[in-house]
Amino acid sequence: EMLLEEGEDRESEVKKQELPVSAFNKVYPWRFCFAGGWMDLAWCNALHPGCAVTINIKYNPKICRDYCGLATSSRKVAIKLWNGRIPVHLEPEKAARLLWGAENFDAFATRDR
User: How far is residue 80's CA from residue 74's CA, in Å, rounded to a whole number?
Assistant: First the structure.
């Protein structure tokens, strides 16, 4: 059990022990979205249907930063979801579905699901 000093709460202690997302820069792939990166959102497809053009890129500290178009939100959710490890125990499609669900849960969760 974690020993806490007087006045500390468990949540703040856990946050101090978390690794920053940058610790996983070379573990989790970087995806660059050339076009259509929001096609998984129904409202985007309703306005302008089409496909997404994405590629994986090798980590480069000059390029790979927390910018739009680099799927950084997906990387952050994946790192939290799988504790910074690649989920090799899952089939790729299953991992992709779990990640999509975790990243989009707030937008699509209902009482029925």
Answer: 10
Distance CA 57, CA 32 (A): 7
Task: Using alpha carbons, select from 95, 89, 106 the residue that is nearest to residue 29.
Answer: 95
Amino acid type, 47:
L
pTM exceeds 0.70, yes or no: no
CB neighbours of residue 15 within 10 Å: 9
CB-based burial, 46-66: b 16+ in 10 Å, e otherwise: eeeeeeeebeeeeeeeeebee
Give the model confidence (pLDDT) of 11-52 as tens digits. 665 565 566 667 777 788 888 877 766 666 677 777 777 777
CB-based contacts of 20, cutoff 8 Å, min separation 6: none
